[in-house]
Amino acid sequence: MDSAASHHITSDLTNLSIHSEYDGTYEIVIGDGSGLKVTYVGSMSLSSLSKSFLLHNTLRVPNIHNNLVSVHNFTRSNNVYIEFHPFYFLVKDRNTGTTILRGDCQDGVYPLPQLSSIQKPPTLALVGERTTLDLWHTRLGHPSTKICRFLISCFSLPVLGSSQTLSSLCSACQCNKSHQLSFSKTSLISTHPLEYIYTDIWGPAASTSIDGYRYYALFVDHFTKYCWLFPIHHVATQFLTHVLINFQKKIQKQRKTLKIQKNVFLIHLHRF
User: Fold this and answer.
1) What are phi and psi of 232, to 5 degrees?
2) Domain extents for the chain?
3) Cβ(115)–Cβ(109) below 8 Å
4) Which fold is adopted by the domain 196-269?
5) Which of 74, 153, 211, 243 has the fewest CB atoms within 10 Å, measured from its CB?
């Protein structure tokens, strides 16, 4: 416990449950007048039997030999006050005066007793390096610029540069957030399932599936909009010999189930 320290100080980065790089110019001035470099700033929690203590504004100083707890920040963050006695100290609640923690004086200083460290809830982000706004936009699931800036501000995420807007258009957002115009009306009218069936072939895919498929054939019933999908290796051979035969067998079975009397159906080859 240090009444002259303006911030909590630790040399071990793992003590901080959430932290970010420190890009300021301030240093920690020690007794001989020299300055120690600050590399990270963050927060942590310590738990006693009766209360959990929050340590905000904790600085990571690699060359410090002992961890320091700022008395001012400790009492302000946890709504407590501290009584220093010749052989011990007490941490008491400001509202009730109840003693929350007791520690012994050792060699003229007042160290905190051994407390267990508490990890922050999973909603807090753990970050350790600065990156651009564009990369944060990708990491956060492609939100809008307004939401992206809000999340960065809310969780103090380290951003490289001062730009508040995306530097380039996101191709993923352009493809997945675009809106398709409605289809034009058609004169084709179906009165029962399997009367008209449309088909389309998609491919080749940029990468082959585990089973070696690069295309797929899609069949759509005009009346019910029910779809059948068949993965295929090669368009010309397998589509004609295997997919069509299997699809026809499926249709014949479904016709018997639906008790449809017609034996002929129309396949409109949209793109073949």
Assistant:
1) -140, 155
2) 8-118, 133-166, 196-269
3) no
4) Nucleotidyltransferase; domain 5 (3.30.420)
5) 211
Q: Are 103 and 113 in contact (CB under 8 A)?
A: yes
Beta pairing, strands 52-60 & 8-10: parallel
Closest CA to 193 of 265, 123, 111, 134: 265
For residue 63 the two structure tokens come to 């060359």
Using CA atoms, how far residue 68 sits from 1, 8, 30, 64, 85, in Å, is: 6, 6, 12, 9, 19
- Residue whose C-alpha is closest to residue 102's, from 77, 78, 84: 84
Is there a contact between 46 and 52 (Cβ–Cβ < 8 Å)?
yes
Q: Assess whether pLDDT exceeds 80 at residue 73.
A: yes
DSSP three-state, residue 152: helix
Q: Which residues pair with 60 in a beta bridge?
A: 10, 40
| Contact (CB, 8 A) for 45 and 54 | yes
Query: Any idea which residues carry the catalytic annotation?
Result: 2
State how far the Cα of 186 lies from the Cα of 218, in Å rounded to an integer.
20
pLDDT digits (tens, 9 = 90+) for 113-159: 876 554 444 445 555 567 788 888 888 888 888 888 888 888 777 78
Threshold 0.70, pTM exceeds: no
